[in-house]
Amino acid sequence: MSSLRSVVGILALTRSLGCPITVQTHRHIKRWVAPTLRELAHRQKKLGPQKPEPRAGFVEWNERSELFAFGKRLGESFQLPLLQRAFTEKSFARMEEEKRRKLGIEENDLHVADNGDLVEKGRHISKAYVEAFLQHQLPKVPKEGLVQIANYLLSTDTLAHVSTHLGTKDLIHSTEYPPSKESLAESLQAVIGALADSSGVERAFLFVRDFICTQLNQKDLLDIWTPEEPLQLLEKICTERKLGEPEPRLLGDCGKNTVLAAYQVGIYGNRQLLGQGFGEDVKTATETAAIDALQRIFDTHENRRPFDFGLQLETQNVRLA
């Protein structure tokens, strides 16, 4: 105690005299640390890559807190039992029932609810809203084009991409880890169904708009839907919309009879330029010009007006039947 008081007195005297205090810190690393770390790294390398383990197997995992945080991150209100069921696959539920049966649990307590019905409900809601959204935002695109774009948004790859970035991987109860793309996509559909049961269909529609329809943002629609026979489709569209018979014309060429040949073709209708394109031969240039004309007619070119993701469609405009 006396030594502590003397140290405090010296510090007080130093401060009163205005002398700067310099504190020197020395980092001491024991000699055994580096060899130990090298040995651990060597053993880890001999074991090889470790199989990823779900976070649910960790001691500090709290599923109820994770489910609650999941809803709050998305700004949605879920009923926790419904959300928990949305992440429970049928295969996992059957496995849990078998475990309970082996433990001798009574038959009445064996059932484990899975997300089958929620998946179907979410798939129906997302399909209905995506189709209504595309019809409103792309009114000039024909039905076959809308179907292709809707299939892209509702594809397993797109839904799995959205599901992964929403943080569902560690919440899914599945017999495999990490979960497959199919599991991720179905879990997202089940979450939509659980949201509809918890907060209403309108909130589920907004969820689909904010997380699924926004996958079209800065996306070239030509990468999603390219007509197989553009010239024939252009002729059909021009006839239906009374734009005149499309007439391809050669606008320019260079490098004939060489490997660097290039042709420019324009397609006219009623003496108006509908589209133009380039290619290594006349046929390719004509098809490119037809695709350009279709993009202008359907208003799907790169410079089109951006999608309105703040749009709120009325419930009666979305057919759930």
Write the layout of secondary structure elements.
Elements: H1 2-17, H2 33-47, H3 63-74, H4 80-86, H5 90-102, H6 116-137, H7 143-153, H8 156-165, H9 181-199, H10 201-211, H11 221-224, H12 230-240, E1 247-254, E2 262-269, E3 272-279, H13 282-298
Antiparallel strand pairs: 1-2, 2-3
**Mean pLDDT rating:** 85
Low-pLDDT residue intervals, each spanning 5 or more residues: 10-14
- Total helical segments: 13
Distance between the termini: 83 Å
Radius of gyration: 32 Å
Q: Mind describing the biggest β-sheet?
A: 3 strands, antiparallel
The proportion of residues in beta strands is 5-15%
Major sheet strand order: 1-2-3
* Shape by Cα distribution: extended
Q: Give the helix proportion (percent range).
A: 40-55%
Instruction: Tell me how many strands there are.
Output: 3
In terms of structural class, how would the helical and strand content be classed?
mainly alpha
User: Order of helices and strands, N to C?
Assistant: HHHHHHHHHHHHEEEH
Please give a structural write-up.
By secondary structure, this protein is mainly alpha-helical. It has 13 helices and 3 strands. The chain has helices at residues 2-17, 33-47, 63-74, 80-86, 90-102, 116-137, 143-153, 156-165, 181-199, 201-211, 221-224, 230-240, 282-298, and strands spanning 247-254, 262-269, 272-279. The chain has a 3-stranded antiparallel beta sheet with strand order 1-2-3, covered by helices on one side. A hairpin with a 2-residue loop joins strand 2 and strand 3 (272-279). Mean pLDDT is 85; it is low at 10-14.
